[in-house]
């Protein structure tokens, strides 16, 4: 029953989710609205508790075993509690203060300051570092080892030249040709990939609803 109950819930809710797109009856639509607006919020609240518990358990185990880079786990745990306390009791911004003081002189550390002063710069730094990995991957992908790689290399070369103002002045037809590559072959490939992804999502959803795919239960039969 421990494994059958989740399978039954997924089967019933999955079939019901499909029926809402087929049957426009008010009872079906109202029930679907309750699922989307109320029950999903309750599940989301439980998922926050589950996520926080999972993060704390993972990092406390690393700290206890002194695993590789265990010092960063302390930073994660402390940052989690500090940001949670400030977010819950310190207010959102200076115009809406909370129970705890979040300003010392001209320095403010409310939750909006943490987001704009820490999260945004850290995200920009992460993307800046990823640019080097993307450049390395592009170098490996653009080597003309076969026909497909050669087509990719030539297309990228044309697109880059089409975006350069000097090249536009020398070859006037090049920007139009670059736009055609983006509008026709690129769009066709993107739609084909999107179609394949949609079929994959549909197949995976059916396998989960029908109980064929049970990896989300933790493996086993």
If you had to describe this structure to a student in words, what would you say it looks like?
This protein starts with a helix and ends in a 12-residue tail after the last helix. It is extended and about 65 Å long. The protein has seven helices and two strands. Strands 1-2 form a two-stranded antiparallel ribbon. It is 75% helix and 2% strand. Strand 1 and strand 2 (107-108) form a beta hairpin. The model has no long low-confidence stretch (mean pLDDT 85). The longest helix has 40 residues, at 26-65. It is mainly alpha-helical and 221 residues long. Helix 2 crosses helix 3 and helix 5 (147-162) packs across helix 7 (174-209).
List the helices and strands and how they pair.
Elements: H1 4-19, H2 26-65, H3 70-89, E1 103-104, E2 107-108, H4 111-141, H5 147-162, H6 165-170, H7 174-209
Antiparallel strand pairs: 1-2
Helix pairs in contact: 2-3, 5-7
Short note summarizing the structure:
The chain crosses the membrane at residues 7-27, 39-60, 72-92, 112-139, 151-171, 191-210. Keywords: Membrane, Transmembrane, Transmembrane helix. The chain has 221 residues and is mainly α.
């Amino acid at each position: 029953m421990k494994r059958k109950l989740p399978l039954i819930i997924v089967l019933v809710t999955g079939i019901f989710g499909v029926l809402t797109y087929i049957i426009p009856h008010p009872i079906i639509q109202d029930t679907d609205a309750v699922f989307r607006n109320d029950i999903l919020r309750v599940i989301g609240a439980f998922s926050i508790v589950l996520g926080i518990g999972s993060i704390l358990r993972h990092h406390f185990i690393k700290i206890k075993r002194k695993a590789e880079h265990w010092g960063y786990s302390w930073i994660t745990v402390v940052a989690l509690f500090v940001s949670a306390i400030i977010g819950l009791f310190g207010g959102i911004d200076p115009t809406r203060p909370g129970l705890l003081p979040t300003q010392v002189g001209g320095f403010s550390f409310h939750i909006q300051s943490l987001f704009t002063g820490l999260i945004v710069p850290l995200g920009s730094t992460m993307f800046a570092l990823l640019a080097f990995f993307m450049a390395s991957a592009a170098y490996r992908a653009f080597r003309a080892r076969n026909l497909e790689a050669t087509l990719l290399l030539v297309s990228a070369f044309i697109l880059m030249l089409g975006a350069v103002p000097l090249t536009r002045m020398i070859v006037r037809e090049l920007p139009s040709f670059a736009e055609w590559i983006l509008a026709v072959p690129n769009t066709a490939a993107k739609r084909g990939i999107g179609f394949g992804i949609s079929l994959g999502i549909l197949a995976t959803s059916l396998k989960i609803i029908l109980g064929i795919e049970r990896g989300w239960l933790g493996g086993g039969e």
